[in-house]
Amino acid sequence: MTEMITGVDLIKEQLRIAAGLPLSISQQQVRVRGHAIECRINAEDPRTFMPSPGKITRFHAPGGFGVRWESHIYAGYCVPPYYDSDDWQTDRHRR
C-alpha cells in the first residue's frame, strides 16, 4: 500500500539498510500521490478464526489499471488444513 502511493520500494530500502547503506530517499522527498485500498481473503471460519480448509471451486482474479493482486490460489486449488490463512490479497491504487 505504501509503495503504491509513494512510489518508494520498501524492500529495496530495507535491503540497503541491511547492507549498511543509507536510505536512497529522505522523508522530505516522500510524496503521497493518490489513494489505495487493500482487501484480503482469509481461509478462516469467521466465528472462530480457525483454519477452514477445502477446495476452491470458483476463482476470478481482479484486474485493470492500478490493480495488483498477490496469490497462489486458483480454481480447483485445495486449501490444506495447515497453511498461512492469508491466501489472497488485492490492492487498488488511484491517482
UniProtKB/TrEMBL annotation:
| UniProt xrefs under Pfam families | Biotin_carb_C, CPSase_L_D2
The reaction(s) this protein catalyses = N(6)-biotinyl-L-lysyl-[protein] + hydrogencarbonate + ATP = N(6)-carboxybiotinyl-L-lysyl-[protein] + ADP + phosphate + H(+)
Q: Which InterPro entries match?
A: ACC_Biotin_Carboxylase (IPR051602), Biotin_carboxylation_dom (IPR011764), Biotin_COase_C (IPR005482), CPAse_ATP-bd (IPR005479), Rudment_hybrid_motif (IPR011054)
Domain of life of the organism in this record? Bacteria
Does the keyword Ligase feature in the UniProt annotation? yes
UniProt-listed Enzyme Commission number(s)? 6.3.4.14
Keyword Protein transport on this protein? no
Q: Name one GO molecular function term.
A: biotin carboxylase activity
Q: Which EC class heads this enzyme's classification?
A: ligase
Biotin carboxylation domain: which residues?
Answer: 1-95
Q: Which UniProt keywords apply?
A: ATP-binding, Ligase, Nucleotide-binding
What is the protein named? biotin carboxylase
- State the organism named in the record: Raoultella planticola (Klebsiella planticola)
Source taxonomy: Bacteria, Pseudomonadati, Pseudomonadota, Gammaproteobacteria, Enterobacterales
Gene encoding this polypeptide? accC_7
